Amino acid sequence: MIPSTTRKFIDSLIDYYISEAASYKQLAKAYSDEVEDINANAFGIIVGCIYSAFLQAYQNQKLKPLLEDTQEFTQMIKIRAAQIKRGILDAKV
Asked: How far apart are CA 62 and CA 36, in angstroms?
């Protein structure tokens, strides 16, 4: 089970990336020649950044996430995926 402090950290990161979706959509747009779906690309970049921070949080505590932790992380993203997508779709670039 993900420690509560790490869960709060991940939730705050999701909020942050939603609020900064325009920046990540702009970054995704830079690869539009290679990847046609800018919104899907931005979603992948955001989730990748959050996942990287999730792993770093464990590393900072000298821990390694278990399979269950990774599954719980995935569930957290799934629950908030619509909000992330909305942030990207609403972003003006």
From this structure: 39
Model-wide pTM > 0.85 = yes
What amino acid is encoded at 30 in this protein? Answer: A
User: Which amino acid makes up residue 22?
Assistant: A
Q: How far is CA 72 from the centre of its chain?
A: 14
In this model, does residue 52 exceed pLDDT 90?
yes
- The enclosing H or E element of 43 equals helix 38-60
Q: What is the mean pLDDT of the chain?
A: 94
User: How far, CA to CA in Å, does 12 sit from each of 34, 35, 36, 64, 93?
Assistant: 31, 29, 29, 21, 24
Closest CA to 40 of 50, 49, 29: 29
Dist CA 34 CA 24 (whole Å): 16
What per-residue confidence (pLDDT) applies to 55? 97
Q: Hey, CA dihedral for 33, 37, 38, 43, is it positive or negative? A: negative
